Structures are given as C-alpha cells and as structure tokens.
Amino acid sequence: MEFKIHYSPKDIYCILASPSTQSIGSANDETGEREKLAKPALIFTHGAGGSLTSGGIANFSCGFSSLLPILCFQGNMNLKSRVKMFNAIVEDQNCSTWLGGRSMGARAAVMATTSDTTHLVLVSYPLHTAKEVRDQILLHLPESIKVVFVSGDGDSMCSLDSLEQVRGKMKCKSWRIVVKAADHGLEVKPRTATEAVGKLVGEVVARWLGDNNDTSREGQITWNAEAGKAEWSGWASKQNNESLPKDTVLASPVSTFSELPISTPPKKNILKRKERPLSVDRDAVSTRTRKHGKS
After folding, report:
1. Which end of the chain is less enclosed by CB atoms within 10 A, N or C?
2. Are 171 and 146 in contact (CB under 8 A)?
3. Residues 94-137: pLDDT tens digits?
4. What gap in Å lies between CA 111 and CA 120, rounded to an integer?
5. pTM for the whole structure
6. Residue 281: CA count within 13 A, CB half-sphere
C-alpha cells in the first residue's frame, strides 16, 4: 500500500507491506483506506543514495513482510532531515517501538529513537570511514534497547572486528547477523543470489523481533551455490568471528509466529517496479573516492 505522510517542505512517500499484501495499491487520508491497515511493526528507511526500489530495501522488505508489517519511507540525503522524517512518521503512525534502516538510514534510526523504542534494526551500519568512527550514537543508546546488526563480512564500511569492539562498549544488548561473502550493499555472487539472501535477512530479522534470546546472539546467512538457496545458521552463543556450525534450519518460530511455516514460499516483491533505476549508496561512494585519491 502506497501513501504519503504530510511533511514540510515535501510529503513523505511511504510503502506499507504486510503478510496480507497482494499487490501495490494507493491510499490517502480521504479514502480512509489507511485506517483499515495494520500498524507497521517496523519503520524502516534506505541509505543515502538509495530509494525504495533499491534491491537492498525491496528484498529485505519482501522477506520481513512475509511475517510482519513493515513501513518503508523515501528520504533525502541529509541525515538530520532523515531523522526529522522518522519523527514525523512516528507521530503519524503513533508507533516508535521498532525502528531501523540501511546504511545512512541506520544512523538516522539510531538518532530517532524515543523513550518508547525497544528494538533497532541496523542493516549495513556505516561504522567507519577513512576519517572517523561513527560509534558515539551507538554508545549512548540506553540499556533498555535491543539492537540487531546485519553486516556483510566484506563490508568496507563496517569491519567485523571493529563492530565487535563497539558492541563490547555498548550499554545495550546487541545481536549480529553476518552475511557471508557480502559487501556493504549485501550483494553476493552470483548476482541472482542477492535477492534470495536479502529476503532471508528480512525474514530472520522479523523472527528476531519476536524472539531474541540473550544467550544466543550470533548468526550467519550464506548462499549455498550447490543447493541454489540462501541458508540461515540459526542463533548461537559464539562471540568471535570464526565460522559457526552449519545448520540450515531456521530458528524455531515463537508463539506469535506459530501459524507460519519455518520456510515461507517465495512472495512477490511489492517494492519492485518494472524498471529499477540504478541506485548508489553515497556513503560507500565517498569512501571509494577517497581511497582512489579523487576529489
């Protein structure tokens, strides 16, 4: 369901996807259709140079919405403005419990937390650049919030070692999903595997929001080329970067998901369009530019 939320200087374009969503529709305040929809479990946004049609957002949303409702919104490239957009959507939806984003959107989600926020979903959090480490807002999070990080083990903006050091300093509890052989955009090879991996990330995060065990906080997603599918290791208590025991069965669903199968069938990605424009994560671009000495 597509709709806009009033915001100055420009209304915020949103897409609400849920397990019952079959196709894209549009709604506005006058029709009253929005009131008939379930409240989003998660409010989520894209990276600096991305959009709602970017593969990383579309795939994640498709997997997540197979279990729980998710609202994704289109933002601009200004971090402070993106935080204000979060605030406007939280007020409109009367919902700020679960917030999240990808890359710069993850930073904005952290900065937009309120006293009601209980969970943060940080996908490809851009922890470091050539000049700085963006850890202060993470270290200021209160103990009451639970955080899940999703990172590719080849992410040049968030090395696993650096992330572990920051997690060790955080006051709140955190979980980590490592996507094997993935970069900052969670892209893997072959390219056709990226969609399946992204959808599985969304599904695993949705399950985590309903059941996060304090003693099991590490997991991995891999692409099994031989089987032609993405696989989830299940949660483990391992606290280092060594490979977890291979276990392709998803963690058991909690009571709120009891009616859902552990492996859901493929679902139409409602955030995709017939033509998907090339999107660029400008956080990543700026890093590559500095690396090659360009201005």
Report:
1. C
2. no
3. 888 999 999 999 999 999 999 999 999 999 999 998 889 999 99
4. 11
5. 0.80
6. 29
